[in-house]
Protein backbone atom coordinates (compact mmCIF):
# COMPACT_ATOMS: atom_id res chain seq x y z
CA UNK A 1 0.00 0.00 0.00
CA UNK A 2 1.25 3.47 -0.87
CA UNK A 3 -0.06 6.87 0.14
CA UNK A 4 0.34 10.05 -1.86
CA UNK A 5 1.32 12.46 0.89
CA UNK A 6 0.38 15.49 -1.21
CA UNK A 7 -3.21 14.48 -1.92
CA UNK A 8 -3.62 11.75 0.74
CA UNK A 9 -4.85 9.29 -1.88
CA UNK A 10 -4.39 5.69 -0.79
CA UNK A 11 -3.12 3.23 -3.39
CA UNK A 12 -3.33 -0.57 -3.35
CA UNK A 13 -1.18 -1.80 -6.22
CA UNK A 14 -0.64 -5.34 -7.54
CA UNK A 15 2.09 -7.29 -5.74
CA UNK A 16 3.76 -7.99 -9.08
CA UNK A 17 3.23 -7.03 -12.68
CA UNK A 18 1.43 -4.15 -14.30
CA UNK A 19 -2.17 -3.35 -13.34
CA UNK A 20 -4.85 -4.79 -15.61
CA UNK A 21 -7.71 -2.79 -14.13
CA UNK A 22 -8.03 0.53 -12.33
CA UNK A 23 -10.62 1.08 -9.61
CA UNK A 24 -10.97 4.62 -8.30
CA UNK A 25 -12.91 5.03 -5.05
CA UNK A 26 -14.67 8.30 -4.18
CA UNK A 27 -15.84 8.70 -0.58
CA UNK A 28 -18.87 10.49 0.81
CA UNK A 29 -19.10 13.96 2.31
CA UNK A 30 -17.47 14.33 5.71
CA UNK A 31 -15.36 11.20 5.21
CA UNK A 32 -11.90 10.71 3.68
CA UNK A 33 -9.91 8.28 1.55
CA UNK A 34 -9.20 5.99 4.50
CA UNK A 35 -12.93 5.37 5.05
CA UNK A 36 -13.15 3.37 1.82
CA UNK A 37 -9.98 1.39 2.44
CA UNK A 38 -11.94 -1.70 3.67
CA UNK A 39 -13.92 -1.64 0.41
CA UNK A 40 -10.69 -1.26 -1.52
CA UNK A 41 -9.20 -4.32 0.15
CA UNK A 42 -12.26 -6.40 -0.73
CA UNK A 43 -11.99 -5.33 -4.36
CA UNK A 44 -8.27 -6.12 -4.46
CA UNK A 45 -8.92 -9.58 -2.98
CA UNK A 46 -11.20 -10.36 -5.94
CA UNK A 47 -9.14 -8.49 -8.54
CA UNK A 48 -5.50 -8.97 -7.50
CA UNK A 49 -4.14 -7.36 -10.67
CA UNK A 50 -6.21 -4.22 -10.18
CA UNK A 51 -4.80 -0.91 -9.03
CA UNK A 52 -7.26 0.31 -6.38
CA UNK A 53 -6.94 3.98 -5.46
CA UNK A 54 -9.06 5.63 -2.80
CA UNK A 55 -9.19 9.30 -3.72
CA UNK A 56 -9.19 12.13 -1.20
CA UNK A 57 -11.90 14.77 -1.44
CA UNK A 58 -10.54 18.07 -2.70
CA UNK A 59 -11.84 20.32 0.09
CA UNK A 60 -11.87 20.25 3.91
CA UNK A 61 -15.36 19.44 5.16
CA UNK A 62 -17.17 22.68 6.02
CA UNK A 63 -19.90 21.06 8.06
CA UNK A 64 -20.10 20.24 11.74
CA UNK A 65 -16.98 20.50 13.95
CA UNK A 66 -14.53 17.64 13.38
CA UNK A 67 -10.90 16.70 13.89
CA UNK A 68 -9.74 18.13 10.57
CA UNK A 69 -9.56 14.83 8.70
CA UNK A 70 -13.01 15.08 7.12
CA UNK A 71 -13.19 16.04 3.45
CA UNK A 72 -15.76 16.85 0.80
CA UNK A 73 -15.91 17.07 -2.99
CA UNK A 74 -18.24 20.06 -2.83
CA UNK A 75 -20.03 21.99 -0.12
CA UNK A 76 -23.46 20.97 1.15
CA UNK A 77 -24.13 24.31 2.82
CA UNK A 78 -27.09 26.45 1.80
CA UNK A 79 -29.68 25.43 -0.79
CA UNK A 80 -28.00 22.18 -1.83
CA UNK A 81 -30.81 20.96 -4.09
CA UNK A 82 -30.72 24.10 -6.23
CA UNK A 83 -26.96 24.60 -6.18
CA UNK A 84 -25.79 20.97 -6.48
CA UNK A 85 -25.51 20.88 -10.32
CA UNK A 86 -23.33 24.02 -10.41
CA UNK A 87 -21.16 22.84 -7.54
CA UNK A 88 -20.61 19.49 -9.23
CA UNK A 89 -19.85 21.15 -12.57
CA UNK A 90 -17.20 23.27 -10.87
CA UNK A 91 -15.23 20.29 -9.58
CA UNK A 92 -15.67 17.95 -12.58
CA UNK A 93 -12.77 19.26 -14.72
CA UNK A 94 -10.28 18.57 -11.93
CA UNK A 95 -11.71 15.11 -11.28
CA UNK A 96 -11.70 14.16 -14.96
CA UNK A 97 -8.11 15.34 -15.30
CA UNK A 98 -7.08 13.31 -12.24
CA UNK A 99 -8.80 10.18 -13.54
CA UNK A 100 -7.02 10.48 -16.87
CA UNK A 101 -3.70 11.13 -15.12
CA UNK A 102 -4.07 7.91 -13.10
CA UNK A 103 -4.97 5.98 -16.26
CA UNK A 104 -1.93 7.29 -18.09
CA UNK A 105 0.44 6.77 -15.16
CA UNK A 106 -0.64 3.17 -14.62
CA UNK A 107 -1.16 2.26 -18.26
CA UNK A 108 -4.82 1.29 -17.83
CA UNK A 109 -7.37 2.30 -20.44
CA UNK A 110 -10.80 3.79 -19.93
CA UNK A 111 -12.68 0.54 -20.58
CA UNK A 112 -10.72 -1.19 -17.80
CA UNK A 113 -11.41 1.63 -15.33
CA UNK A 114 -14.20 1.55 -12.74
CA UNK A 115 -15.38 4.50 -10.66
CA UNK A 116 -16.67 3.33 -7.29
CA UNK A 117 -18.55 6.02 -5.42
CA UNK A 118 -20.40 6.30 -2.14
CA UNK A 119 -22.97 9.06 -1.54
CA UNK A 120 -21.35 12.34 -2.67
CA UNK A 121 -18.65 10.28 -4.38
CA UNK A 122 -21.38 8.56 -6.38
CA UNK A 123 -22.76 11.92 -7.49
CA UNK A 124 -19.33 12.87 -8.85
CA UNK A 125 -18.86 9.48 -10.51
CA UNK A 126 -22.22 9.57 -12.30
CA UNK A 127 -21.77 13.13 -13.45
CA UNK A 128 -18.20 12.46 -14.63
CA UNK A 129 -19.28 9.78 -17.10
CA UNK A 130 -22.34 11.80 -18.08
CA UNK A 131 -20.00 14.62 -19.08
CA UNK A 132 -17.27 12.37 -20.55
CA UNK A 133 -18.86 9.20 -21.92
CA UNK A 134 -16.38 6.33 -21.78
CA UNK A 135 -14.14 7.96 -19.16
CA UNK A 136 -14.64 4.68 -17.28
CA UNK A 137 -16.03 1.35 -18.38
CA UNK A 138 -18.17 1.02 -15.27
CA UNK A 139 -19.55 3.05 -12.41
CA UNK A 140 -20.47 1.37 -9.13
CA UNK A 141 -22.88 3.87 -7.60
CA UNK A 142 -23.50 3.20 -3.90
CA UNK A 143 -26.15 5.21 -2.04
CA UNK A 144 -26.03 8.19 -4.38
CA UNK A 145 -27.88 10.03 -7.11
CA UNK A 146 -27.46 12.26 -10.14
CA UNK A 147 -27.02 15.97 -9.55
CA UNK A 148 -29.41 16.28 -12.49
CA UNK A 149 -30.73 13.51 -14.70
CA UNK A 150 -28.75 13.22 -17.96
CA UNK A 151 -30.11 14.15 -21.37
CA UNK A 152 -28.27 11.18 -22.91
CA UNK A 153 -27.26 7.80 -21.55
CA UNK A 154 -23.55 6.95 -21.61
CA UNK A 155 -23.02 4.43 -24.38
CA UNK A 156 -19.50 3.41 -23.32
CA UNK A 157 -20.11 3.11 -19.59
CA UNK A 158 -22.16 0.55 -17.66
CA UNK A 159 -23.88 1.93 -14.56
CA UNK A 160 -24.52 -0.23 -11.50
CA UNK A 161 -26.69 1.32 -8.79
CA UNK A 162 -26.68 -0.09 -5.23
CA UNK A 163 -28.97 1.37 -2.61
CA UNK A 164 -30.40 0.70 0.82
CA UNK A 165 -34.18 0.57 0.78
CA UNK A 166 -34.34 2.51 4.07
CA UNK A 167 -31.71 5.14 3.21
CA UNK A 168 -32.75 8.35 5.05
CA UNK A 169 -30.00 10.53 3.54
CA UNK A 170 -30.46 9.89 -0.18
CA UNK A 171 -33.76 8.01 -0.49
CA UNK A 172 -33.87 5.00 -2.79
CA UNK A 173 -36.44 6.77 -4.98
CA UNK A 174 -33.57 8.68 -6.58
CA UNK A 175 -32.01 5.42 -7.79
CA UNK A 176 -35.37 4.18 -9.05
CA UNK A 177 -36.03 7.46 -10.86
CA UNK A 178 -32.58 7.29 -12.45
CA UNK A 179 -33.25 3.76 -13.71
CA UNK A 180 -36.65 4.74 -15.11
CA UNK A 181 -35.12 7.77 -16.81
CA UNK A 182 -32.18 5.85 -18.26
CA UNK A 183 -34.53 3.15 -19.58
CA UNK A 184 -36.10 5.77 -21.86
CA UNK A 185 -32.74 6.85 -23.30
CA UNK A 186 -31.11 5.14 -26.25
CA UNK A 187 -28.10 2.96 -25.47
CA UNK A 188 -28.46 2.89 -21.70
CA UNK A 189 -26.85 -0.01 -19.81
CA UNK A 190 -27.72 0.11 -16.12
CA UNK A 191 -28.63 -2.18 -13.23
CA UNK A 192 -30.15 -1.55 -9.80
CA UNK A 193 -29.80 -3.63 -6.63
CA UNK A 194 -31.75 -2.65 -3.51
CA UNK A 195 -31.15 -4.04 -0.01
CA UNK A 196 -34.39 -3.69 1.93
CA UNK A 197 -34.09 -2.40 5.48
CA UNK A 198 -30.59 -1.03 4.88
CA UNK A 199 -29.79 2.64 5.44
CA UNK A 200 -27.08 4.96 4.13
CA UNK A 201 -24.18 2.54 4.38
CA UNK A 202 -21.89 0.18 2.48
CA UNK A 203 -23.75 -2.93 3.54
CA UNK A 204 -22.26 -6.38 2.97
CA UNK A 205 -25.29 -7.43 0.91
CA UNK A 206 -24.79 -4.52 -1.48
CA UNK A 207 -21.08 -5.24 -1.71
CA UNK A 208 -21.89 -8.84 -2.66
CA UNK A 209 -24.20 -7.50 -5.37
CA UNK A 210 -21.41 -5.27 -6.65
CA UNK A 211 -18.94 -8.16 -6.89
CA UNK A 212 -21.55 -10.21 -8.72
CA UNK A 213 -22.19 -7.40 -11.21
CA UNK A 214 -18.46 -6.94 -11.82
CA UNK A 215 -17.89 -10.63 -12.48
CA UNK A 216 -21.13 -11.64 -14.21
CA UNK A 217 -22.67 -8.65 -15.98
CA UNK A 218 -21.57 -8.44 -19.60
CA UNK A 219 -21.81 -4.82 -20.78
CA UNK A 220 -24.37 -4.18 -23.51
CA UNK A 221 -21.68 -2.71 -25.77
CA UNK A 222 -19.83 -6.05 -25.61
CA UNK A 223 -22.95 -7.91 -26.72
CA UNK A 224 -23.53 -5.41 -29.50
CA UNK A 225 -19.93 -5.78 -30.70
CA UNK A 226 -20.33 -9.56 -30.71
CA UNK A 227 -23.60 -9.38 -32.62
CA UNK A 228 -21.97 -7.02 -35.09
CA UNK A 229 -19.26 -9.60 -35.63
CA UNK A 230 -21.85 -12.28 -36.26
CA UNK A 231 -23.59 -10.08 -38.82
CA UNK A 232 -20.29 -9.37 -40.56
CA UNK A 233 -19.38 -13.06 -40.63
CA UNK A 234 -22.71 -13.91 -42.23
CA UNK A 235 -22.16 -11.49 -45.11
CA UNK A 236 -19.79 -12.08 -48.09
CA UNK A 237 -16.28 -11.05 -47.24
CA UNK A 238 -17.16 -10.52 -43.57
CA UNK A 239 -14.83 -10.97 -40.62
CA UNK A 240 -15.11 -14.49 -39.19
CA UNK A 241 -14.13 -13.50 -35.64
CA UNK A 242 -16.21 -12.04 -32.82
CA UNK A 243 -14.99 -8.67 -31.60
UniProtKB/TrEMBL annotation:
Q: Does the keyword Hydrolase apply?
A: yes
Would I find Hydrolase among this entry's keywords?
Answer: yes
Q: Which GO terms describe its molecular function?
A: hydrolase activity
Sequence similarity = Belongs to the AB hydrolase superfamily. AB hydrolase 2 family.
Signal peptide from the UniProt entry:
none
Name the InterPro entries on file: AB_hydrolase_fold (IPR029058), LYPA1-2/EST-like (IPR050565), PLipase/COase/thioEstase (IPR003140)
This one is known as Phospholipase/carboxylesterase
Which Pfam families is this protein grouped with? Abhydrolase_2
Its transmembrane ranges are: none
Q: Which domain of life is it from?
A: Bacteria
Please list the residue ranges annotated as the Phospholipase/carboxylesterase/thioesterase domain.
Answer: 16-215
Swiss-Prot/TrEMBL keywords: Hydrolase
